[in-house]
Amino acid sequence: MVADLLVLAELFPNGISRYAIGGLFVGLGAAVIYAGTAINAGASTFLESTLSYVSDRSRFARYAGSRDWRLVFTLGIILGAAVYAVVYQDGTWTTDVAAWRLLVGGILVGIGTRVGKGCTSGHGVCGVGSASKTSIAGVLAFLLTAIITAQIVAALGVTP
């Protein structure tokens, strides 16, 4: 038990309370969205649902009924990050990662969410929570890919 606590203290030097509270809010948010809309929360359809405001194409029109909450959901993610930066980081957001790497990473994540028919919030939080076999397989693929990629990148000595 003490050894487990020491490992936790090493992995999370600032404690786990902020992660536990964040997880509670993510779960609560997913439950509220599902209770209010009967649709699993997920951010991967944000672009298509937003385009439904300005396009009549059938690909985008299918999201017209859920686009309002999807917009609020995505804006809430952005606002939450901004509030965190103001409260915990003196209003600044900094990273050691080069801007071009952030851009390329964002593009690859965007492509991956469309190919995988969902994002980690949709599959990981809602899909696994509802015991969806597709989501469980998706999350396992996400994790294995991330672990393998991290090991390769570390072995190559790549830094931000």
From TrEMBL:
Its membrane topology: Multi-pass membrane protein
Location of this chain's protein in the cell: Cell inner membrane
Main localization (coarse): membrane
InterPro entries assigned: Sulf_transp_TsuA/YedE (IPR007272)
Top-level taxon in the UniProt lineage: Archaea
Keyword Phosphoprotein appears in the UniProt entry: no
GO cellular component, one term: plasma membrane
Keywords for this protein: Cell inner membrane, Cell membrane, Membrane, Transmembrane, Transmembrane helix, Transport
Transmembrane intervals: 20-47, 68-87, 99-116, 136-158
UniProt keyword Transmembrane, yes or no: yes
Pfam short name (any one): Sulf_transp
Name of this chain's protein: YeeE/YedE family protein
Species: Halonotius roseus
